[in-house]
Structure formats: structure tokens, C-alpha cells
Amino acid sequence: MRYMRPGQLQGPISTVQGFDISHYQTNVDFLAAYGSGARFVIVKATEGGTFIDPKFQGHTDDAVNAGFVHGAYHFARPSSSSGSQQADFFLANGGTWVADGMTLPGMLDLENNPSGSQCYGLSQSDMVNWIVDFVDTYSGSTGRFPMIYTTNNWWNTCTGDYSGFSGYSPLVLARIGNTFR
């Protein structure tokens, strides 16, 4: 993967297909997904500073058994605690990285606040600082930089199209869908 600022996107950057899942997806047929061309899965591990996804371990085990490259993601709640506190919580509850050739570095999921203001009440500079705090804590513990998952709109609105992570944290842009193409 390579990072491009959201406004610079020219088309698909990667042809590797995969998906992310959480406790909202209860019956996942990993073998069928693999047969349809998916090769990686990223499973929700944590949210904010207190929520551990109850399906994380089961989904991860099923993904491993089906042969997927896999990883974990953390759904950020920047208004509830610091980036470093949430990174530590993520690391303590499934977000670690293992040098086994099958485990991806963790992913930080930054999306609209589902229960309040779009940018969690933070200014663009405060949001960037929160993300830096998370990224620094995660990379300091694992030796790997986390991926950052978001949408064009969220990134432009909440960080002012900040490009400072382009040298080290891959940007994963959301593409919502239920099928593998």
C-alpha cells in the first residue's frame, strides 16, 4: 500500500481484496469469502477506552483457520480519552503486531462520531495531535506504524487534509459494500 492524501486519489491503489468486521457481523463464512478472492481481514478489537469486541477472538480464529492475513482495528473515540490511553487499551486487548508473516499492524478507525459531533468536538489541530498520540504510542510498543482507516470527508473535515502521516502510516479509505469484486 502507499499513502496518498485523500484529495489526490486517482483510483484504486491496491488490488488485494479484504474486509473489516466486528460484532455486528455474527455469521461470517470466511471460507466462502476466501473463495471469492478476499485475502485479508481486519477484525474490530476495541472501541474507545472501555469496549472490547466480544466477537474479536472468534472472528480472528476463524480468519486464521481460513488462511487469511489478518489484523485488528480500534474504533477511535477521541472525546473519551487520550490517543495514548486508547492505543494502550487496544494493545492490551488484541491490537498487538506479531512478525509471523500473517499478522498486519493494527488499524486506527477514524469515522464520524456515532453519538455526537462529527469530529468529537476537537479542532483540526487537536484531532491531528490526538492521532499523533495514538500512532506514537502504538509504534513505540510494536515497532510498526498503524494503518489509518477513514473516509475522504472525515479526513478533510476533521484533520484539514493533514498529510503528515504519509511517510509511515498507510491510509485505508473506506469502501462500503457486502460483496467482493
From TrEMBL:
Its EC number is 3.2.1.17. SUPFAM superfamilies: (Trans)glycosidases (SSF51445). One of its GO terms (biological process) is peptidoglycan catabolic process. Keywords: Antimicrobial, Bacteriolytic enzyme, Disulfide bond, Glycosidase, Hydrolase, Secreted. GO terms for molecular function: lysozyme activity. It catalyses: Hydrolysis of (1->4)-beta-linkages between N-acetylmuramic acid and N-acetyl-D-glucosamine residues in a peptidoglycan and between N-acetyl-D-glucosamine residues in chitodextrins. Its main location: secreted. GO terms for cellular component: extracellular region. InterPro entries: GH, Glyco_hydro_25, Glyco_hydro_fam25_subgr. It holds the Pfam family Glyco_hydro_25. Transmembrane segments: none annotated. It is found in: Secreted. This enzyme has both lysozyme (acetylmuramidase) and diacetylmuramidase activities. Belongs to the glycosyl hydrolase 25 family. This is N,O-diacetylmuramidase. The lineage of its organism: Eukaryota, Fungi, Dikarya, Ascomycota, Pezizomycotina.
